[in-house]
What does this fold into?
Amino acid sequence: MDLDFSGILLTVSDVLEHLYCPRFTWFEKYQMLPEFQERRAKVQMGRSLHETRENTNRSYLRKRLNAVDKRIDVSLVSERYCLRGRIDEVLFFQDGTAAPLDYKFARDPGLIYRTLRFQSAIYALLIQEHFQCAVSKGFVVYTRSSNAVRTIDFTPADFQQVGNVLSEMLNIIQNGHLPRRAPPSRCVDCCYRRICT
Ligand code: SF4
It folds into this structure.
């Protein structure tokens, strides 16, 4: 996956908002209406990660996951993927692989949501490129469920889907392609609803 975004760098929030409604990309990145930025996806993403860490014994967690090294609060940029992201932790393992670890100030929902899988796959791409190592899984820690850890095992389809979405965003940003609408239930409290026809 090599993309030509001509210097554009998308954040994980940008991508997740696009998943919520691709027209957010059109309004914000093509029509340049960033003043409308009160959106559900951002609110969902906006939990302070710092507050999630306060009561978490991170050393214990890493040992539990058999990590041999770690980096904390890692900001990465990829021109190749046109992405930038800030990862709570990057764990390194004996076999030379690495994995993103993400803290959520939430209860364990019992499953991995699609958006979370997507977010973790994006982090995996950033880690792979920056640290030049394989990333086959990601971890999510739910601090309100006694630090329950969920493992995401990535498949080639996960990375393919990220590439497809990034290409779709590129098409909107560079060509002004007006994307499909979101399902009507998502429009009810959308800040763009008055101008979205
Ligand atoms: S009104 Fe609906 S279709 Fe339009 S941007 Fe908002 S969520 Fe998307």
In short: Strands lie at 10-11, 67-78, 83-93, 98-104, 137-142, 148-153.
